[in-house]
Write a structure and sequence with these properties.
The structure is a single chain. With 301 residues, the chain is an alpha/beta fold. It folds into two domains: 175 residues, FAD/NAD(P)-binding domain; 119 residues, 3-Layer(bba) Sandwich (FAD/NAD(P)-binding domain). Helices cover 24% and strands 29% of the residues. The protein contains seven helices and 17 strands. Strands 1, 2, 3, 4, 5, 6 and 17 form a seven-stranded mixed sheet that branches. A five-stranded parallel sheet has the order 8-15-9-10-11. Strands 12-13-14 form a three-stranded antiparallel sheet, with no helix packed on it.
């Protein structure tokens, strides 16, 4: 069987592309290696997604998008794509086989960036976490550190403050990068404090985390923080290792035009994996819609 479009990735951009492609009566397959929704599934509250005045839980929105895509006829397969091949008929190779298609939409998203400091690997899943909504209940009444200063870090710090006794935000700059409304919400939480101009250096502990060492970037002064858990939100890495034949920027993001065309005709990219200024659920959904329409036009022409 040859599909009209194969979508790689089931986050908001991939699901949006699936909805638009299937609704256009294109034979559509979406391949997702974990579960649909991507990183928005670990977001407690999406306050800035249009249409939800009180916000919406990221997992709940993912479920709605997946159901909508399936209702329009999208096939969803759980597998990991390892490479793609270009041609008149393109091929998507995964761990469990290969599928042919007229067009490909790459919506593989990003992965969280690690600190890469001593002790991090030892305690991943045992005190070091990249998901507050997943692990916050384990730290009820305990002290935790959040590494980062962007929207994700501050939003997760606010969520953690509902469980933890104390939340300490460690940020490498002298000012947070998070939007003002999130900073205002954080300031209203008495159990959240911020340490500026500091970076993590090493995690210490035996069976569990005992402390994290940080260094002031201006004074080079070292300091140890006694904590029970560490939550890391310092950036993202595009999932592009399987895309050796597409043009990427210096940071590994896929370069596209405004219609989501990549360097190879018939292959499109959308969402967080592509080079762009703003990475939000709403922009991912918009990218996905445009990618599907571009795929449709490519097939028609």
């Amino acid at each position: 069987m040859t599909y009209d479009v194969i979508i790689i990735g089931g986050g908001p951009s991939g699901l949006s592309a699936a909805i638009y492609a299937s609704r256009a009566r294109l034979k559509t397959l979406l391949i997702e290696k974990n579960g649909c929704g991507g990183q928005m599934t670990v977001t407690d509250l999406l306050e800035n997604y249009p249409g939800f005045n009180d916000g919406i839980n990221g997992f709940d929105l993912a479920v709605k998008l997946e159901m909508q895509a399936r209702d329009f006829g999208t096939e969803i397969m759980y597998d990991e794509v390892t490479s793609i091949e270009n041609g008149v008929v393109k091929k998507v190779i995964s761990i469990n086989g290969a599928c042919e298609t007229k067009t490909i939409i790459v919506a593989a998203g990003t992965s969280v960036k690690k600190m890469n400091i001593p002790g991090e690997e030892k305690f991943i899943g045992k005190g070091v976490s990249f998901c507050a909504i997943c692990d916050a209940p384990f730290y009820k009444g305990k002290d935790v550190v959040v590494i980062g200063g962007g929207d994700s870090a501050i939003q997760e710090a606010i969520y953690l403050s509902n469980f933890a006794k104390n939340v300490i935000v460690v940020h490498r700059r002298d000012a947070l990068r998070a939007t003002k409304i999130l900073q205002e919400k954080m300031a209203s939480r008495a159990n959240i404090s911020v340490i500026y101009d500091s970076i993590p250096k090493e995690i210490f502990g035996n069976d569990s985390i005992e402390k994290i060492g940080i260094t002031n970037t201006k004074t080079n002064e070292d300091k140890d923080l006694q904590v029970d858990g560490i939550f890391v939100f310092i950036g993202l890495i595009p999932n592009t290792l399987f895309l050796s034949n597409l043009t990427l920027d210096k940071n590994g993001y896929v370069i596209t035009d405004e219609n989501m065309n990549t360097s190879i005709p018939g292959i499109f990219a959308c969402g967080d994996i592509r080079k762009k200024q703003l990475r939000q659920v709403v922009t991912a959904a918009s990218d996905g819609a445009q990618a599907a329409v571009s795929a449709q036009h490519y097939i028609e022409n």
